[in-house]
Amino acid sequence: MQLVAASVFALASGVLAQNVVQFNVTRGVPGVHLGSIPVLGKRGTTHSERLINFMAGGGYYARVSLGTPPQVMTMLLDTGSSDAWVLSHKADLCMDDDLQQSADKICVDTFNPSKSSTHKVIDPRGFQIKYLDGGIASGGWMQDDLTIGGTTIKSLQLAYVTKAKRNTGILGLGFAASEKAATKYPNIIDQLANQNLISSKAFSLYLNDRRTDAGSILFGGIDTDKFIGPLQIIPLLATNGTYTSFEIDFSSLVVTLPNSTTLTMETSMLDHPAPAVLDSGTTLSYLPDDMVDTLTSALATYFDPDLGMTLIDCSYLSSSSSSSSLSFTFHFLNSTASIRVPVWEMVLDVLSPSYIPPPASPFQNACLFGIQSTEIFETTGTVKQPNFTLLGDTFLRSAYVVFDLGNHEVGMGQANLNSSASRIIELKEGPKKDDDDDDNNGGGKNAAGDSATKTRGLPVVTGVLAQQTTFTPTAGPVMTLVTTKNAAAAAAVGRSGSGRGGEMLGVLGVVGLASFFAVLGGVFMAL
């Protein structure tokens, strides 16, 4: 049966298809009470980058189990890198009390290989990775059993870090070509397929509304209740014939202003290409400087030179404000595919209540704008000639994205925010089509047992007809702060909300925010 519309998959809520691995991800670092975070240092410090990403709920985290018996690990879900790594119980960050004086350096979970009967050392050294903020993680390579979403991957290769600048592990979901190992190996996506735990090297990401604290991921499947309209298929871009990241053709940004006029900025205005990298490990989104200059001059924004960042009025946080019609529509593939981001998804309430805008600021109640300039990477000396677009969580929350590594494409749909139901289709590989076959139809199987032959490419599917649910606020997590050496993260002890608009605790200092959010994506990692 050909997959042409979601209506043929009227599945019961919560029913899972065969060979689909599903689990929830949580925004912000579990196991840490944000109320203990100190004021930032001077502008330009790499500490500022990591700390703000940490504090603002940057990134989405999964709780997994590693080893036998299982040890619980917290890992950042990162579509911008390809290696999985965890903190060793002997990591310098976790052994040295002095290093743990900063909240972004308090170890959340650590792994002790001597307590796992299935652990195997591959190379006691050999792993090193450098991030955009200058932080370096290094250690060795190992194999062990990893359980995620109730599914166990046997003998997964991953790194254990003994020298670190961040307090949790990372679950890299990218292409093996970007692995930091001298010899490429089957990473988590490869092993899920190799061990017949999923039937296609693909996964779907749903980060949900900014005002909620959790999203979900599906390995090997698509949830048609999580997006609106047809799934738009966009081919990935290769570098010298090799696919290294989730990079797609970004063609234009159309801004709908509160007065109903529109501002269109095409990438053709630039003197260089600006492909977009989809990176869940990055909190903000970054556009080429010329586009940001045009954008911010049309909006009531303000660049604070002390912070080194563009700010916007916090009144935009509310979807019921008079300016709520402001939106940003990103167009891809020569404008044949698009995602609309409402303004309240582009506003982050993360500044300290004591922050006082300079006299030149057009507003008194300041929030961080979710789009910044890539020029920041050039001025900090981390990237030369930043000819790219980086779409992080401020964009991805409005999109439902299917990352298909096997067929080098992504499927993208407008997110159905706050969806409370599921209609899940298993992605099932079939024979590859001939090169001269232009049929891009795919196939799969839903939880009721329906199936289709999947040729090369994602299936033609349609989500819900319109936004199905309304926003119901959820309180942010309150966790126990763990400061002892080698301590695993404590369980959540309660929940409460804080900050304007439901954002996670605003305790950032008024100075020192250059290179604001640490970019964790692998596209910016040095060799």
TrEMBL record:
Task: Provide the active-site residues from the annotation.
Answer: 78, 279
UniProt-annotated stretches for the region Disordered: 429-454
Give the signal peptide as a residue range, or say none if absent. 1-17
Q: Which InterPro entries match?
A: Aspartic_peptidase_A1 (IPR001461), Aspartic_peptidase_AS (IPR001969), PEPTIDASE_A1 (IPR033121), Peptidase_aspartic_dom_sf (IPR021109), SAP-like (IPR033876)
GO annotation (BP), single: proteolysis
Q: Where is the Peptidase A1 domain?
A: 60-413
Residue ranges crossing the lipid bilayer per the database entry: 504-526
- What are the protein's UniProt keywords? Aspartyl protease, Hydrolase, Membrane, Protease, Signal, Transmembrane, Transmembrane helix
Residue ranges the record marks as coiled coil: none
Determine if Membrane is one of this entry's keywords. yes
Per its UniProt record, what Pfam families does this chain match?
Asp
The entry lists its GO molecular-function terms as: aspartic-type endopeptidase activity
Family in the record: Belongs to the peptidase A1 family.
UniProt name for this protein: Candidapepsin-8
Native species of this protein? Answer: Cercophora samala
